[in-house]
Amino acid sequence: MADPGLTGILLAGGASRRFGSPKADAVFGGETLRERAWRLLGEACDERLLVGSGGLDDPGTGPVAAIAAGLRAASHELALVIPVDMPLLTAASLRRLAAACRDAAVAQAGPLPCAVARRALPAFETEERRLRTVLDGLDTARVELDERELANVNEPDDLARLAP
Length: 164
Fold this sequence. Notes:
Elements: E1 3-11, E2 27-28, E3 31-32, H1 33-44, E4 45-51, H2 63-73, E5 78-83, H3 91-100, E6 104-107, E7 114-117, H4 121-124, H5 131-136, E8 140-143, H6 156-162
Parallel strand pairs: 1-4, 1-5, 6-8
Antiparallel strand pairs: 2-3, 5-7, 6-7
Helix pairs in contact: 1-3
């Protein structure tokens, strides 16, 4: 069930260079990675925003600028941010990030997925391109999540490796 007061931001604007084709369109478990991530955000959040790949304009300068675009459009004070390429994430883990959020919360491997308070938007409106650097400058909680859920897809073979 979606939590009221949470905005989900799906980052789907990467170049997919290593993958060789748009990752968001790759199929995993009968769904595209975009569909799967969108559904997951719907399980955890009552508002969902897509940045890049047919959604809000992706400034094309990496996740920091993309998160800034999502935070500017968010209706709620707290946002959960996920990349399109982590198909094993669960709503329970996203809720854990939200519950731990101060200015931000990240999993142990960070920087994505993360929870970010909208009041932290000025930190994302920067020339800095490294998300880890921006998050390190905030009051960021670290949350231990299942390592398997944090696996991401960089190459087509990763889809087979992650399949149940």
